[in-house]
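pasting for ref
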Amino acid sequence: MKHKKEYPRKIFHMTLGILMGLLILYFRKRYLLAFITGIICGGLIIRLFLLKGYRFELFDAFLRKFGRPMEIGMGAMNFIIGAFIAVLFFPREYAALGVIVLGVSDGLSTLMGMNSKNKVYMNKTFEGTTAFFISSFLIIYVKTSLFQAVLVSILLSLIELFAPVDDNLLIPPSCALLLSLSTW
């Protein structure tokens, strides 16, 4: 199977999203921001060393298992930065939903769409976009109204489909923003 490496990557992505979402729900904002800032700083330092050619066996093994070639941890870094932005500017409940949507829905969209021939836009597929919509709807509907869940899931699916930058960076703050705006 040509996408064999994507399965562990996306399982890790989904697990990280759920765990990070739970952390956001159950810890105070100032502690979360300090913790996430520490992760970002540590990640940047490690990334700089890796880009300079230094090797750390622990990170090399992790990147071989879960990373894409030439990415050097940027997907994970963008995930954490997107979570940071959501936590910084929006209510924790909305930030947590955004991070869980990113982890679960983005992971499922890749897993459901990676063998499809039904391309919608760029490398995105109909099946992947549908999986993103359904899973994000179910996650959001747990904490919001039917109207909010449908509206926000449609808009997030479009953002995920047409995002000009890494969706790991956009989905958490976009979800939190859309949830905030849709409560007015």
